[in-house]
Amino acid sequence: MWEQFLENFMNIGLFHIEIGQVIMWMISFILFYLAIKKGVEPLLLIPIGFGVFAANFPLAGLMEEGGLFYIFFHYGIETELIPPLIFLGLGAMTDFGPVIANPKTFFLGAAAQIGVYMAFFSALLLGFSVPEAASIGIIGGADGPTSIFLSSNLAPHLLGAVSVAAYSYMALVPIIIPPIAKALTTKKERQIIMKQMRPVSKTEKIIYPISASIVIILLVPQSAPLIAMFMLGNLFMECGVVDRLTDVSRNALMNIVTIFLGIGVGATMSAENFLRAQTIYVFILGVVAFAFATAGGVVFAKVMNLFAKEKVNPLIGAAGVSAVPMAARVVHVMGTEANPQNYLLMHAMGPNVAGVIGTAVAAGAFISAIM
């Protein structure tokens, strides 16, 4: 009886704590601090942080098959359910008007994807496998759900590091974009005033998600889960006859899946998965991806100006990194600082929205080529 009692006593978690788990708790506390004190993506970093915290309790079994967090991860992320639902909500909050009114801004969002491929090839040079390099490269799109979608397909063991890096750099948009954009533009270029865009009709806004789905999904079928849901959410909003579905998509559903997404992602960050040299490389390459994405959009805008009659302010190219709508707001502020009469917000939303689509297409292209 005494031996049985001693065996049961020694099976409490307190006697099985390892240094790696303590380090992961400290990382979760850092995520809490960033979210609560600094306001860095709190809607995601708090559930991700708690997922990290709880999943690293010894003997809890939360990520063992059948465990609560395993269910969130397996049925929500591994089966690719949650990221498309996030895109449904994003679509219900996104106005395609700026892209429709000025289609050439779509190319700025496409040009920003150079960051994805620069990080991809850099990761290959550092010894990562092709699926791992693709998962790391997609961080350059500054799109958390797409990063999670691709990583869960190609490199699930990197999911935690990739997702935290992606959302961290999304939150750092106001710090990362300005110095790069200013270094690549002159004050005169930043002062360029773009004329007001033409009004976009309701009919155009209804037709666009349907026609865009046809073109994109036919060209890159593997992007269908993200693009289809993104366009469906937008159609909900623009058609004007399903206000309840629009409201649920952008509010209640979005909030629910965000909780499950955060917990599921955080739960993958066990000490044995996260505390590796690879994790450091992921964060470094994430910065490389983001920097080249910003530079790619700005430089392409400058090239466009060599041939265009109506000049674009090169700053709007920096919004091609996605991170909707934060990147567009940062660009707008920079334009106002250069010229108080500048109003770039809606112009920047064109490449900003195009960046979301471009990153989803890049993810689909990676899956098609690798799997």
Automatic annotation (TrEMBL):
One GO term describing the cellular component: plasma membrane
One BP annotation, GO: sodium ion transport
GO molecular function: lyase activity
Record's subcellular location: Cell membrane
Protein name stated in the entry: Oxaloacetate decarboxylase, beta subunit
NCBIfam families linked: Na_pump_decarbB
Pfam families: OAD_beta (PF03977)
Upper taxonomic lineage: Bacteria, Bacillati, Bacillota, Clostridia, Eubacteriales
Main location per the UniProt record: membrane
InterPro entries noted in UniProt: OadB_MmdB
Keywords: Cell membrane, Ion transport, Membrane, Sodium, Sodium transport, Translocase, Transmembrane, Transmembrane helix, Transport
Keyword flag Transmembrane: yes
Top-level taxonomic group: Bacteria
Organism: Desulfoscipio geothermicus DSM 3669
Record's bilayer topology term: Multi-pass membrane protein
Ranges annotated as spanning the membrane: 12-36, 43-63, 69-93, 105-128, 166-185, 206-232, 252-271, 280-300, 343-370
Keyword Cell membrane: yes
